[in-house]
Design a protein that fits this description.
Shape: globular
Number of strands: 5
Distance between the termini: 32 Å
Helix content: 25-40%
Radius of gyration: 14 Å
Strand order of the largest sheet: 4-1-3-2-5
Length: about 140
């Protein structure tokens, strides 16, 4: 029997401004790395902040998180939620991505409750279900 999958959700504030091109390069490189590592998940960007759900084998997720923690592009990295799950929430997505700064994102009703909050808002840490709700809301 396979062991349960591990997942982790963190938020961070970038230490530099990411252009649209920078974000797309970051996502492309992450997708390649995640495919090699057996990682899936979802990344959300808003106003220089990231929320990221990573899922896979616990050791692999932990190693990836350590690497992310050493990345100088991240500041104020906060782990919001960890746990185990039976199946992947994002099967087939080495990295789903949504930029909530776009005008298209602002027009989607399911994002409305989250657009007023910064991704590092303490409510996400106090109510981790909000993280999962936001990450599910952005699935196309």
């Amino acid at each position: 029997m396979d062991s349960p999958l591990f997942f982790l959700v963190y938020v961070s504030t970038s230490t530099r401004i990411f252009s649209k091109k920078d974000l797309l390069k970051l996502v492309a490189a992450s997708r390649q790395r995640n495919a090699r590592m057996g990682i899936t998940g979802m990344l959300v960007h808003k106003n220089g902040q990231f929320m990221h759900l990573i899922e896979g084998e616990e050791e692999t997720v932990t190693l990836l998180m350590e690497k992310i923690g050493r990345d100088k592009r991240h500041g104020e990295l906060i782990t919001l939620l960890t746990g185990q799950q039976e199946t992947r929430q994002y099967p087939g997505w080495t990295l789903g991505f949504k930029n909530l700064n776009t005008s298209h994102s602002k027009a989607i009703e399911s994002y409305a409750p989250y657009l007023e909050l910064e991704l590092t808002d303490p409510r996400f840490a106090a109510e981790p279900q909000l993280c999962l709700d936001l990450l599910k809301a952005v699935i196309p």
